[in-house]
Every structure is written in C-alpha cells, then in structure tokens.
Amino acid sequence: MSNTSRRKFIISSAAVAAGSLLASSSVNKLFAGANGNLPHSHFKQEPLTYAYNALEPSIDALTMEIHYSKHAAAYCKALNDAAHAENVDVSKTVEAILKDISKYSTKMRNNAGGHYNHELFWKSLSPKTTVPSVKLAEAITKTFGSMEAFKTQFSDAAKTRFGSGWAWLQVNNDKKMLISSTPNQDNPLMDLAEVKGMPLLGLDVWEHAYYLKYQNKRADYIDGFWKIVNWDFVSERFEKM
Ligand code: MN
C-alpha cells in the first residue's frame, strides 16, 4: 500500500469507527421529534392475541372492546404525550420510566403505569384453560400454603382495594413471592410503590374493567377472572426471573 492509499485507508477506517459510535444516537435523532424528544407514536399497544368475545362469559365482548380500544388506548396516547413533553429519551423503555417514576409528572405516573399494567393484563388472560408450571405451583404452595389459599388471598386484595386499582402477585427484590395491591395505575415496578418488585400477575379492579356486566359485584368478576388466567404466561415470567 502506498503512503497515500494507506492514509486514505486509515482516514476511512476512522470514519467508519466514528460512524458506528454515532449510529445509535443518529438513529434516535432520525425517529425523534423536532426538538429531539420522542415522537408521539413511540409507545404502542400490542394487538390482542384473541378476539374481544373470546373471554366470555368471564369478561364480555363489549367490556373488552371498550377497555382495550378506548381506556387502554387513552393511557398509551397520554404516555406518548407526556414522554414527548417531558423530553424522555427514545431509548427509555416504559419499565425504565416506571423505575424512576418519582422524577416525572403525575400524568406520566398515571399513564406509564396505565400502559404497562394493561399490556401485562391482556397477556395474563387467555381463552384456553391453562395451569401453572410445576415450578410456579411449587413456589405458590410454599409461599401461601396451597393454590386455593393463594387465590383467596389474591381475591381478598382485589376485593378490598378501595376505589380503583390493581391486585398483584409479585416477586420482590429478595426473591420473595407476595400479594400486593396498588391504587390508580400504580404498580410494583414504581420506585414509589409501597411494596416494590416484579409483577407476575395483575388484576384490574377499576370499574371500567367489569361494570357493564357485573355492576357492583366486583367479587363475581374476580371469580370469573380465575377461569381465564393465562398461567402459561405467568409461569414463563416467573421462570425467567
Ligand atoms: Mn383498565
């Protein structure tokens, strides 16, 4: 290689290296809004993997349709609006936002929570009958005494949540499995949650989740929920931990 071509080679190699260093931030800029923050369509609802009427009679089709296409869609939209307004970097996942939620606005808290909780909820339900994996069943039995005792305790947390909120089966940071409940759209991933941890299963007990079919009978909605839990999904989350 002549000196000139060697110099050209070194220069172009350096340019390639600098290019790859810059690549991730350039890609981010490409998808960012005018002032460098997220575009409004960044966070998206995943499509449901079953029809609106697939969970009947536990959850009726109209409730599912309104819940998914209106309520949950509104949380997703408002999360995008908040992320845009609060200059959230495009590389941030919703989980990362939740982990530091005390640094953001109430709008972000309500809607990052609302989006995450509903995305988890849809996947936690299935029209197919499923059962917990051996490992998950063992952990539940060890923690709560039996599967029935677990369901009773979880149902009680869901029934006694005053107003709107969620009941959770979660694993906390020292691997302990427990049941908790949060108000509004809070969840155990939030740094300001009373009982922090990784949610395995969540139940939405907002009236919008059941009122059309069950009216004031939240307990009947909770009984119906146990027939449509996607234990394959919950087991998978547990075993990945
Ligand atoms: Mn809901």
CATH class category: Alpha Beta
Tell me the CATH architecture. 3-Layer(bab) Sandwich
Task: Label the structural class.
Answer: mainly alpha
User: In the CATH scheme, what's the topology name?
Assistant: minor pseudopilin epsh fold
The main pleated sheet reads as: 3 strands, antiparallel
Q: What is the H/E string?
A: HHHHHHEEEHHH
Q: What low-confidence regions span 5 or more consecutive residues with pLDDT below 50?
A: 1-35
Q: How would you state the average pLDDT, rounded? A: 88
Rounded Rg: 22 Å
Residue share in helix: 40-55%
Silhouette? globular
In CATH terms, the superfamily is Iron/manganese superoxide dismutase, C-terminal domain
Describe the structure.
The chain has helices at residues 3-31, 61-85, 94-99, 106-123, 134-144, 147-160, 211-214, 218-225, 231-240, and strands at residues 165-171, 177-183, 198-204. The protein is mainly alpha-helical and 241 residues long. The chain has one domain: minor pseudopilin epsh fold. It has a three-stranded antiparallel beta sheet. The longest helix is centred in the N-terminal third of the chain and has 29 residues, at 3-31. It is globular. Bound molecules: manganese (II) ion (MN). The site of manganese (II) ion (MN) has 7 residues, from helix 2.
